[in-house]
Predict the structure.
Amino acid sequence: MGNKKKSSNSLASNGTSDDALSILAGTDNSNVESEADRLGREEHIIATYAASAKAIDPHSRDIQVRDVTISFHGANLIENTDFVLNYGNRYGFIGPNGSGKSTIMKAIAARAIPIQDSIDLYFLSHEYPATDTPALKAVYEVDEERAQLEADAEKVNEIIAETEDEETQTKLSDHLNLLYERLDELDATTAEARASSILHGLGFTKNMQSMKTKEFSGGWRMRVALARALFLQPTCLVLDEPTNHLDMDAVFWLEDYLANWNKMLLFVSHSQDFMNTVCTHIIRLNEHTKKLDYYTGNFDSYVQERKIRDEEQQRKYDAEQRDIAEIKDFIARFGHGTVKMVRQAQSRQKLLDKKLEAGLTPKPVPDALWDFSFPDPGELPTPVLMVQDVSFQYNPTAPLLFSHVEFGIDLESRIALVGTYRLLKIYFTCQNYISNFFYRSQWSWKIYFC
Ligand SMILES: Nc1ncnc2c1ncn2[C@@H]1O[C@H](COP(=O)(O)OP(=O)(O)OP(=O)(O)O)[C@@H](O)[C@H]1O
Ligand SMILES: [Mg+2]
């Protein structure tokens, strides 16, 4: 498919000529720069797709865009590949660091590829701002959408009453059903309780829920933003590493919550456990072929299926290479022989050209293995570090955050630190004290904090 369109704004503004239906697209934003255009201009993220994508069914609950290419500063992250999300599936998006997952998500969130307006899409990209709004209110107030939906529903009802065309009436009735379904989901009478339950799951005590968002750190405000995303229940939720700011309890809660997500979910996570619990599908960004490869099942199923696919690809690759070597050998040996042999060599050359033109199977490339090694510090007397009776508070009037902590570290120690996010942060703050301890001690080694 060579015929491509550069992306433009949402489908409703370039995809349907039906004025009655365009009510669902909201106000006329034709003079306002779209997020997709801003991405191209400011961040140099450009998406193109098959022109036929414009023929997409505006009522479909699935996203299907063919022949998508997304580039960042001119370099293609994906090339001529299909982007498909089906309603009800939870997709884990995987690929090596720097391969372009976040950039691609940004492009999708900006609707730089055609996604029908009936699909409301929410991309969690940054924390909730530091304001005077209490955390709980910040969450349940997110559904200003409700008022808009009610107004839309009223207007659609009026149009249905006025129109005589049966086909338009059916289309509008379908839209009306979607609007009412959505209004049910946003039930205002339970809004506060639902918002509170989500915040509780993400670690906010009752007291914290009434605190102003400006009183929270960036990490906690990220949780407020996550709570808003979950509260909204968008048809398509897009999350980039949602567990980054969460402690273990909140991760478990989120895992459980998302495992029951019954709309569309696309998320990046570097935790295999999280993916195993949440995903129904995996999308692999293959950085060698620049394609999106789709796998059914969770991360463990992906690993098995990937092995099978790689082995199959290797067999195909080997067979093709063998064939090509044989053909080349024939041409080399008989290309200058008798007329009959030369003819045969010419026909093999044609066969070879055909094979090359059709494209050869690429050799499967295994994922890079990381091997971390640290310089050998030699023999050290134990304990290497002994912490005895350590207490911590930010200042003499602040509450003690931990007290009488005792532990030792020697060369064989492999220690995982667990606790609430706040406490862990404090431990890490203490790394300076630990470093100072080492530097003041009789040995001079390097300490690595990652
Ligand atoms: N602000 C920037 N300036 C320059 N290059 C950038 C910038 N942001 C991203 N890149 C580059 O764009 C490419 C895609 O980055 P992106 O962040 O989308 O990858 P990713 O797959 O999300 O990686 P990770 O798994 O580390 O989050 C990378 O090569 C990255 O180095
Ligand atoms: Mg990323």
The pocket of magnesium ion (ligand 2) is lined by residues 101-102, 240 (CB under 6 Å). Residues 300-358 form one domain. Residues 1-29 have pLDDT under 50 and may be disordered.
